[in-house]
Amino acid sequence: MTDREVRAVAPLTAPPDAEVPAPGSKSVTNRALLCAALATGTSTLTGALFADDTAAMVGALRDLGVAVDTDESAARMVVHGVGAAIGDGTGRATVDARQSGTTSRFVLPAAALTATPVVVDGSAQLRARPFGPLLEALVELGASVRPLDRPGYLPVEVAGPLTAREVTIPGHLSSQFLSGLMLAAPLLPAGLAVRVATPLVSVPYVRMTGRVMAAFGAGADVTETLVSVPAGAYSATEYPVEPDASAASYLFAAAALTGGRITVPGFGADPLQGDVAFVDLLAKMGAQVERGADEITVRGTGTLHGIDVDMADISDTAQTLAAVAVYADSPTRVRGIGFIRGKETDRIAAVVTELRRAGIDATEDEDGFTIHPGPPRPTTFQTYDDHRMAMSLALLGLRSPGIEIADPGCVAKTFPTYFEVLDSLR
Ligand SMILES: O=C(O)C1=C[C@@H](OP(=O)(O)O)[C@@H](O)[C@H](O)C1
Ligand SMILES: C=C(OP(=O)(O)O)C(=O)O
């Protein structure tokens, strides 16, 4: 990473009025890649995301013996699925999930489908994130799990098979544990029922998991307290990936806080991603939002009001909202997101620290933050190797002078072309 690099973001000289494509969805790409790997036959993903998190999933699948052909210029990935034999015949595969929560949490249960031992590891950042509930669930389901460092964290060696048909996990830390179990579940001998013992966060991602599985021919019955997946199989398919709604949040926010208009194409009538609901919050703040049949448009009106909102369903857009809140005419309080302290960094502490660095009155709450609007002063923002810190704080530069972003390269995790796209608004 480029630790000492800093990128200046100069204010726009005129409000943007543009259609701006967003890259493919990280969450959908990584689910579709794994479903395709667990299918028999060849699947093609179009509109796929090419970024560090999806490179992590592609690398993991290859390490587990799955051939994946990629064509970045065509945004296409072709996966030669191996069914339940994933990881078989590799001896003792080692998977590097890099910084990717989805890759690591989705691959672990799949790697435990067979008796071949698989080591899952990741960056120092990923090694600091929680895995305990998922590892405990795998043990309950019959896997052997050997921590190679601290119990409950990566790196870990897992070996299957998974034999039980029921397990209980907590829901309040991360939905990815549940999604990971669901994705492997059709290939368990008797399917799987997962009970969720504590209130589930990031619920739309679990529904997304069920819908991507369905597109690959597998069933899942999803409620917030119980998910049931019958035994079955995945079938290979042609799969179009929708644009990334979390990435699009920065573009919509840019329109809202500059008084411009930005349309992001490619969201159908019923998008898979909960994060499209970010535009409803912009509408509550005073922006005009139109959801068309195939695109979403946000128009800034020049006025933004603070809101009080629970973002437990769409927490990846909480930092984006913090950036918009700086320009509102009253305070904004975000609640329900205590669990984002366990993401790429402690995102509550990080966003509050950085806004305060710019002279904004921001305060940390246990489960969120409060932002009192005001003009930010010229600041070099630290980004904590968190792509969403960099992408959110850069938005302030579109309106206020003297904004710089440290380590801008960290956006490669999900949106490698982010700063070029921001520059295209000029
Ligand atoms: O399942 C997914 O694709 C994701 C779920 C969310 O994580 P949590 O469930 O840990 O909140 C989200 O923050 C992450 O970027 C992607
Ligand atoms: C939390 C994120 O990613 P992940 O958990 O997949 O690493 C994110 O993209 O904001």
From TrEMBL:
Pathway the protein acts in: Metabolic intermediate biosynthesis; chorismate biosynthesis; chorismate from D-erythrose 4-phosphate and phosphoenolpyruvate: step 6/7
Residues at the catalytic site: 316
Enzyme class: transferase
SUPFAM superfamilies: EPT/RTPC-like
Pfam families assigned: EPSP_synthase (PF00275)
Subunit structure: Monomer.
Compartments in which it is found: Cytoplasm
Xref: PROSITE patterns: EPSP_SYNTHASE_2
Region (Disordered): 1-25
EC number: 2.5.1.19
Entry GO terms, CC: cytoplasm
Gene Ontology process terms (BP): amino acid biosynthetic process; aromatic amino acid family biosynthetic process; chorismate biosynthetic process
Positions that bind 3-phosphoshikimate: 26-27, 31, 174-176, 202, 316, 343
Keyword list, A-Z: Amino-acid biosynthesis, Aromatic amino acid biosynthesis, Cytoplasm, Transferase
MF GO annotations: 3-phosphoshikimate 1-carboxyvinyltransferase activity
Boundaries of every Enolpyruvate transferase domain copy: 17-422
Coiled coil (residue ranges): none
Residues noted as binding phosphoenolpyruvate in the record, renumbered to the chain: 26, 101, 129, 176, 347, 388, 413
Function: Catalyzes the transfer of the enolpyruvyl moiety of phosphoenolpyruvate (PEP) to the 5-hydroxyl of shikimate-3-phosphate (S3P) to produce enolpyruvyl shikimate-3-phosphate and inorganic phosphate.
Catalytic activity entry: 3-phosphoshikimate + phosphoenolpyruvate = 5-O-(1-carboxyvinyl)-3-phosphoshikimate + phosphate
Protein name as it appears in the record: 3-phosphoshikimate 1-carboxyvinyltransferase
Family according to the record: Belongs to the EPSP synthase family.
Domain of life (superkingdom): Bacteria
